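Incident log entry.

Two folding requests arrived from the same account within the same minute. Monitoring flagged them as a possible duplicate submission, but the sequences differ. Recording both here for audit purposes.

Request one:
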Amino acid sequence: MRRISDPLFIPGSSLSPEEIHARALPLIGTPGQTYAEHRCVPVRIADEAGVRFDPDFAGRPAVLIAMRDQRGALTAVHGRYLHSTHCQNKMLTVGTEGGAVVLLDGWRTEPLILVEGLFDALSLAVCGWASVATIGRSISRLAEMTFGRVVWAAFDAGRSGETNVSTLRDRLPHALIQRLPPPPRCKDWNTALIKRGPQVVARWLQTQIAGE
């Protein structure tokens, strides 16, 4: 979670995050549905989570999700492009910092699980678990929201994930930060869902969190 200077408007236009979100299409029946299902996320779950589709998100088709603060106000729109070359960004976020992607009422649900990306959060939702995706950005009032709570840091496997866990511990001294890695030989939660399936991933989560 770091400070990133995202554009306030979609590049090449004056569209605000609210306008971008309002014009986006329902996911069902679009190429965004195909993309989500290719990543083993059923369209019903993605649609209920608020994922939408924009055929021209700064020039390319993308699935979109609103980022919101703890009061539910929209702060930014995050897009994951359906296609990208080696010289193109895979993602674009438009708006101000402070929000997060919240699935299944992730702020209020125990345990509180933080993940990195949209499809990490969607993958956990497929397995029946709520989470909050940081999208690699700072979240306003996070220290207040986590005071005295156990926070499960379900970040990517490898050095980058461990660095993010260490940073989280420094920023949340009054929370108990527990590491929650994806299953072995899986770099992130969507990879785990694709390789292992929802039942195996759900059992892994239960075992790691409840110690069962």
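Request two (distinct sequence, not a duplicate):
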Amino acid sequence: MDWGMKNRLSRLIQPDGRCFFLPIDHGYFQGPTSCLEKPGETIAPLLPYCDALFVTRGVLRAAVDPSITTPIILRVSGGTSVIGADLANESITTSMEEILRLNVAAVGVSIFVGTDYERESLMNLADMVNLCEDYGIPVMAVTAVGKELEKRDARYLALASRIAAELGARVVKTYWCEDFDRVTCGCPVPVVMAGGPKCETELEVMEFVHDGIRKGAIGLNLGRNVWQHPHPVAMMRSLRAIIHEDFTPREAHGLYRELVSGGKKAAGTKARKK
């Protein structure tokens, strides 16, 4: 692995081997998503707590301060919308020149395994890997499932994640599921969680995140459970404590309650047991 690739990956994956990416790319297929109508305002209080921002070039230019030090993962696939016939019919939207011009740390490409556009999306990934490897830029594959949410099981996600790794993705973003270790054990590159089941409480989110980390994920790429939450900073800091400080779900939930109430224990660290 050359110096540039190592350097970019080291900016994304922290010294503890973990990461928390904040995706705000949802508008590329579903328009002005609730709480992302003004993305710059939404992310401003969250940027200090994320290890990278996953974003499209349009929002990056229009809404993200270029002086920030937070690494950027650039969404480079798209071309379909939520009201269209098939979300899987994506193409590459961004040139290599643009990727370099924007000085990003990595790029993200969706793949749609098992759909009518499986081959096209996999070739999008392969073509982007071919280009980016020449410039030392990591490619993150996103195992998208479109509108078919029932595909979020271990057998399917393990298949999609392994194929992404085989095609050269340096990182795979996939959904948490039951038996998540089947996904991570079969994927030879780092796996980050994109999300999980619909949750009714903060503790449920924390439980699936903790389970995923325990079963081999290196981190999280979670958006709506953070920036659509009534207390986004408290939620993000609590999840970050699970990822980077080995909090249990109960400990993270305790931190969340302290942050919401403005208590004195809201620093985000815990005493280590000797």
